[in-house]
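Thread: magnesium ion complex, take 2
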Amino acid sequence: MSLFEDLTVVLPTYNEGGNIQHMLATLTELYPGISVLVADDNSRDGTQQKVGEFSATNARVRLLNRDPNDRGLTASIMEGLMNVSTPYYVVMDADFQHPPEYVRELHARLKGGADLAVGVREDKNSLGLGRKLASVGAHALAAAYLRVMRQPTSEDTMSGFFGGRTDICQRTISEAGDRFERKGFKVLFDLLKYLPRNTRVEEVAFPFSMRRSGESKLSSRVILSILRQCGLAGKAAAVAVNFLFINMFGRFLSALVLGLTFTFVFMGTLDVAYDDHFVTSTVLAFVLALAYLVVANKFMMTHGRRDKMIMGMKMVFTGFSGYLVNFYIFYMFFSDQYAVQTWPMFLGFGVAYLWNAFSSAIPEK
Ligand SMILES: Nc1nc2c(ncn2[C@@H]2O[C@H](COP(=O)(O)OP(=O)(O)O)[C@@H](O)[C@H]2O)c(=O)[nH]1
Ligand SMILES: [Mg+2]
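Output below.
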């Protein structure tokens, strides 16, 4: 019997045409007897054909053709895990961010008696600053949740590189799989939430490198799905984050309330004289200019950093000048006196502007 006949690697893929054959060749060369299950989400770049070519010559490599209506990283991995028929499994990315050489170590831990072996990312320098911060925050949240629930935990609850005993894992998915976040990205967190309390977890540190080919499919939106994984309070927080940071109307409303409150509180402390027309003009100008900003944020943003800066500058300019024009038109329409201190209002608008810029940090898709 070859050394790795008791192990299946589950590889979730979406458009990994540039990596998949190299990954399959590496795994089957390094680990004689190993089985590989590719859980592909109907990639459109020929990933499936490439797996097909490979499995034609190697019966231990199988492609799971997934239901196109059930897309999702977690859903794919769950389906992969339920199809494993060896005593042990390892889940890993197909883009070489999880070094194939470390499968050996995870496997050794499982043979040594661990129920779950988690690959802990040693340096996350290949993640951008935003992703790194999100990752630290998400892990802190998940670890706290697991501790409160007195569930097994890990140094890296957000890791996508882990292995385990198939029987325990399949039992957990059969019993609690309907409570997993199927469209989520962090299946390890879901597993930890529902694995038996006495699960023996071991950890293996590994260097987390750059993906070899293609692009990441994850964005800062992942924070939403992680929140949804954290019980009822987490689900409520996800609704709030979605409203304040993603929903256009929510962003508009929160910027409006913030900016107007700031303006009038500031005017109150300054004791400046203003009349009803001023109030009406200010509110109307805010509504119009902010609506413009929120819409501009959605449709004018492009992706490159340079482009973003230029677009940002255009938006500052057009946003502020739009506000100015609106304000004066409304004010002239309603009032015949000009001696107003407009700067609290400008600062107030600045606050709303900054909030709008900040709150659009999470992409809509
Ligand atoms: N089946 C499936 N695989 C996915 C999906 N999104 C990403 N993947 C795969 O999951 C692994 C990790 O995804 P990646 O985009 O590299 O995420 P990152 O490493 O966190 O930036 C890769 O092997 C992807 O091909 C998905 O929606 N469905
Ligand atoms: Mg990756």
